[in-house]
Amino acid sequence: MNEYIVLLRENRNYRNLWLGNVVSLLGDWFNLLASAELITDLTNSGTAVSYLFLARFLPLFFFSPLAGVLADRYSRRGIMIASDVLRALTVLGFLLVRSSSQIWLLYALTITQFVLSAMFTPARSAILANVVPQKDLVAANALDSFTWSTMLALGSFLGGLVAAIFGAETAFVADAATFLLSAYFISQIAGVGRTKEAGRQGGWLDFVDGFRYLRGAGFILGISLAKAGGSLVWGAINVLEIKFAEQVFPIKNTAILSTLRIEDAGTATLGIIYMMSGLGTGVGPLLMRRWLGDAPVRLLRGITIGFVLMAVGIFSLGLAPTLPLFLLATLVRTVGTGTIWVFSAAMLQTLVPDRFRGRVFAFEFAALTLTQSISIFWAGFAQDNLLWMVNRVAMATGLFGLVIGLIWVLFSVRNVTAVKQMQPSEQ
Asked: Over the Cα atoms of the chain, what is R_g?
């Protein structure tokens, strides 16, 4: 753990980037829980909750190609600051949603928020390799994952309490404040400008040039699709966890609920589930890195292990008879998804040239959000139209995850020799 502390202490730019991420993620979980609770209270529909996640993910798919071009042509730092400020203004609009007839406004504001997120995320992924030395990239990605997970655990727990005790409005205001604080920290990053070689052909041609690079680098294309393959499976869990919390494992200890002044037992359970998810996605990649190391071929092996753990964990969710066993399955699942996330990102940041990095991460993000949206829609459709119980949906999703994992195994075996011969890109 000492190397992570040293990285934060000695690298001022990364420290500010990390602090911005901390507060922004804390607000994100406040927002998600408050939005999910609001929709559940106003509609009590699985499909309506699915639409919330679609509103969060589909804009990322449609606007990521443009975001990638912008991240390779203009100041990545400036893009991130503008996105944060505009998102702060947008989430305050959630305070206007008061009845089921205004759900459309919640969806519209969510779409706007995540259009801006589509601008932010590729810029942040690309700038990480500009502020962190190559030897520290895997460590920085692992620390980012640990941070995301810690904020998932802390933010979901606090968000669940705030939404249950003070109401969704307080959570929305807190989210807006975190975006502004994030913008301040990012503004303190110094000495990082636009890339030197991108942006000479014009927006559309820049996009085509990036796609041509991916098409000619088959292994890089495969790595950039790793998260998309995983999210085709894990996306459904975003919807299923809410149903598990509300209908299968609501906290029944009235003394605990009374002490915490919580009226919604499902919201409290969801916060506990998210805490376990944060533990898995945070600690899992750190342990995997300690075990496997930073070499690209080892990272490739770690992604394979991640796919297996993800599928087994999701299938086990449907079999779990009690909340403790459900939480154990959640831990297994999230160790897998966290490993896939961290190791694939580190490989791309190490191997992709800087002039293409923004567009590659935009492509990765677009593919991720498309497959996640498909998975989310499937979860809502199976419950509302096929009339499947939530346990059955989870088990079917886990079995499909094993198929995706097998495809990845074939890809990794085919490319393991090429990985050993690859050299890191220039910074």
From this structure: 21
State the burial class of residue 290 (Cβ atoms within 10 Å of its Cβ: 0-12, 13-18, 19+): exposed
- Which residues in 86-125 are b (16+ Cβ under 10 Å) and which e? bbbebbbbbeebeeeeebeebbebbbbbbbbbbbbbbbbb
Domain residue ranges of the chain, discontinuous segments joined by +: 11-183+202-421
**Which CATH architecture does the domain made up of 11-183+202-421 adopt?**
Up-down Bundle (1.20)
pTM of the entire predicted model: 0.72
Write down the number of H helices and E strands in the chain. 16, 0
CA–CA dist 361, 213 (Å, integer): 13
**121 φ/ψ sector (left φ>0, alpha ψ -120 to 50, else beta):** alpha
Q: What are the pLDDT digits (tens) for 154-197?
A: 766 676 677 667 777 777 888 888 889 999 999 998 876 555 54
Angle made by CA atoms 70, 74, 79, in degrees to the nearest 5: 75
Give per-residue pLDDT as tens, 304-339.
Answer: 999 999 999 999 998 988 888 999 999 999 999 989
